[in-house]
Design a protein that fits this description.
By secondary structure, the protein is an alpha/beta fold. The chain has two domains: about 250 residues, Aldehyde Dehydrogenase, Chain A, domain 1 (3-Layer(aba) Sandwich); about 190 residues, Aldehyde Dehydrogenase, Chain A, domain 2. It is about 40% helix and about 20% strand. It has 15 helices and 20 strands. It has a seven-stranded mixed beta sheet, with helices on both faces. Strands 7-6-5-8-9-19 form a six-stranded mixed beta sheet, with helices on both faces.
């Protein structure tokens, strides 16, 4: 076994909270082999047995949600109550697929020139999941629940700053009664993901993370003709139209921007406001952003905690500085507080334009970019003037107009009207453009990692 440690550091205090041994090449190969052996048995179990274990897993998550939330808080700084909510959502997705998976994977009969013809959905095998730190349980379970109900087994390469979360997730499967190696944590560095993808026992991969990481996994998988699903970054635009309910719009915008300290792929990033309501929106938006409390993530009064790592905080600050240098106005925040911890205040930039980091890049932290639009058409054009296409929202009292904009005019995988963009087990989730491809959740998600097999009989 390699003794190169994977170290977890509390971003609020910079104190070490955990140290885990990484594994060497021989142990890594052994784990891949065992997960493949497990697949051969697991995939043959009756669907109702797999679903019952998934229900057991939901029970384990709910019974231990406070323990798991504490690990999340200590390793990446999420407010404790938000960690509780994250675990509850994981239990929801487990139950959702336990209850609906059998229906989603029923044979689809099709009339042809055969006596009988149908489509059958069968598992692929061992699936590698490369997961991020920002929702360290949810990102994993929204893949794992459908994949394992379908009969696949999983390997988890989690982010290096949440090793305790990764180990706790593997343990939760074992506690629920899943067979050994049905879902296996791989404590390895990111540089060794290629080594896993090169192994023919690994049939496919899913990644949630940066554009760079997604491109790398897609490249290595493509060389070996392996299926991938990628959920990458986002720079979600929220359009505030002239007839919007401003109180509703601002509340949703602030909530989305500060959720998880702004570290959400589908968090609102760019706020595009038409001229008629620009000043009224800004006054209320600044008031509510200023009122949000940054504080100890274990304190129930805190609205948001620190960023997950010091380097992430420093990179975010550079994006703010470069945007200001390019002509953006700093209306709130934008200064690193003294003392230890990866803290960054709620920040508002206005006069943001294309070509500035605040417009073109993903701001992964509590920084809002406000953009003034002359009219509705320009607002839509500015929303789409992005390489990203994960989510978008529009606020208007005219629901027909809002639906038309969401359905036909905004370029994103999820478009919401009068609400913040969020993931839901019942709805497909994913992006277009450099935000990735493929879908998680709903019946679409469970069909990403199956063989959609035609059977024809005469």
């Amino acid at each position: 076994m390699s003794k190169d440690p994977i170290i977890a550091v509390n971003p609020a205090t910079e104190e070490e909270v955990g140290r885990y041994d990484s594994i060497g090449r021989e142990e890594l190969i052994r784990k891949m082999e065992q997960t493949d052996i497990c697949f051969r048995e697991w995939s043959q179990r009756p669907m109702d047995e797999r679903c019952q274990l998934m229900k057991n897993l939901a029970d384990v998550l709910e019974s231990r949600k406070e323990d798991y939330a504490q690990i999340i808080t200590s390793e990446m700084g999420k407010v404790f109550q938000a960690g509780i909510s994250e675990i509850e959502k994981c239990a929801w997705v487990c139950r959702y697929y336990a209850e609906n998976g059998p229906r989603f994977l029923e044979d689809e009969k099709i009339q042809t020139d055969a006596s009988t013809s149908y489509v059958s959905f069968q598992p692929l095998g061992v699936i590698l999941a490369v997961m991020p730190w920002n929702f360290p349980f949810w990102q994993v379970f929204r893949f794992a629940a459908p994949a394992l109900v379908a009969g696949n087994t999983g390997l988890l390469k989690h982010a290096s700053n949440v090793p305790g979360c990764a180990q706790a997730i593997e343990n939760s499967f074992l506690e629920a009664g899943f067979p050994n190696n049905a879902f296996c944590n791989l404590p390895i560095s990111s540089s060794r993901v290629k080594e896993v993808l090169e192994n023919p026992l690994v049939r496919a991969a899913t990644l949630t993370g940066s554009e760079k990481a997604g491109s790398s996994v897609a490249l290595e998988s493509g060389k070996r003709i392996k299926k991938t699903v990628l959920e990458l970054g986002g720079s979600d635009a929220y359009l505030i139209l002239a007839d919007a309910d401003l109180e509703l719009a601002v509340n949703q915008c602030v909530k989305s921007r500060l959720l998880n300290a702004g570290q959400s792929c589908i968090g609102a990033k760019r706020f595009i406001v038409v001229e008629e309501v620009y000043h009224a929106f800004m006054a209320l938006f600044l008031e509510k952003m200023r009122a949000a409390k940054m504080g100890d993530p274990t304190d129930s009064d805190s609205d948001f905690g620190p960023l997950a790592r010091m380097d992430l905080r420093d990179e975010l600050h550079k994006q703010v500085e470069r945007s200001v240098d390019a002509g953006a106005n700093l209306d709130l925040g934008g200064r690193i507080p003294p003392g230890k911890g990866a803290w960054y205040p709620a920040t508002v930039l206005s006069n943001v334009k294309p070509g500035m980091p605040a417009f073109d890049e993903e701001l992964f932290g509590p920084v809002a970019a406000v953009i003034r639009a002359k009219n509705e058409k320009e607002a839509i054009d500015l929303a789409n003037k992005s390489d990203f296409g994960l989510g978008a929202a529009v606020f208007t009292k005219d629901l027909n107009k809002g639906e038309d904009i969401a359905r036909n005019k905004l370029q994103a995988g999820s478009c919401f009207v009068n609400g913040l963009v969020k993931s839901d087990p019942r709805l497909p989730f994913g992006g277009i453009k450099v935000s990735g491809y493929g879908r998680e959740l709903s019946h679409y998600g469970i069909k990403e990692f199956v063989n959609i097999k035609t059977v024809w009989i005469r």
